[in-house]
Amino acid sequence: MFDTLDAVRDDFIRRLERAATDRHLPMHLATLATSDADARVLVLRAFDAEDWTLRFHTDNRSPKCDVIRADPRVGVLFYDRSAKVQIRIKGVARIETEGPIADAAWEAGTNFARRCYLGEGPGTRSTQMTSGLPPQFEGIEPTDDELVPARPNFAVIIADLQEVDWFFLSHAGHRRAQFTLADGALQGRWLAP
C-alpha cells in the first residue's frame, strides 16, 4: 500500500487537501505548536500543494500571533485514528491581517462565524464564564454593518512547510517517511519508525 515515497507523498497531499474542505474528517482539526511550547487546536482552512502552505484563521489579538511574529517556527500535528496515520509538519509561519489572502478568507466566512472577532480578545480575563461575545450577538448572526469593527481582529496564519513527517501505524510493521522542501520540491527518505 505505502511501499514507495511517491505513494506516501500522494497520501499526505490527498489527506491535507481533503481535510481542508471536509469538516467531518479527523485531520480537519490540527494541533499548532508555537516556539513558546504552547499548542492549540485549529481548523485547517487550506492546503496548497504547489506553494507547500497551510492556512488557518485566528484572532489577531491572540497571544500566538505575537509569538509567531517574534519567532515564526511552528509545528503542526494531524492525526487520523481510524486510518492510523499521523502527519507532523515543521515550518515557518506568518500572520496576515490584510491583503488578498486575508481579504478572501474573511469574505468566504459566514457572518455567524465572523462574529467571533467582535468580542473580547482571546485570553481576556473575566469574573464570570463568558463566550467573549458582546451580549447582543450571543446566538445571533450579525449584519454586515455590525461586523465592520470585527475585521481588524481577523487574521490568517500561513505556515510554509519545511519538513513533513508521515507515520503509519501497522501491526505488520510501522512505516515512516520524511520529506524536506528543497528548491521548491520535496525530497523524501524512509526512516525507521
From TrEMBL:
EC number(s) on file: 1.4.3.5
Pfam family, one: Pyridox_oxase_2
InterPro entries the UniProt entry points to: Pyridox_Oxase_Alr4036_FMN-bd (IPR024624), Split_barrel_FMN-bd (IPR012349)
Occurrences of domain Pyridoxamine 5'-phosphate oxidase Alr4036 family FMN-binding (ranges): 20-95
GO molecular function, one term: pyridoxamine phosphate oxidase activity
Keywords: Oxidoreductase
Enzyme class: oxidoreductase
Entry protein name: Pyridoxamine 5'-phosphate oxidase
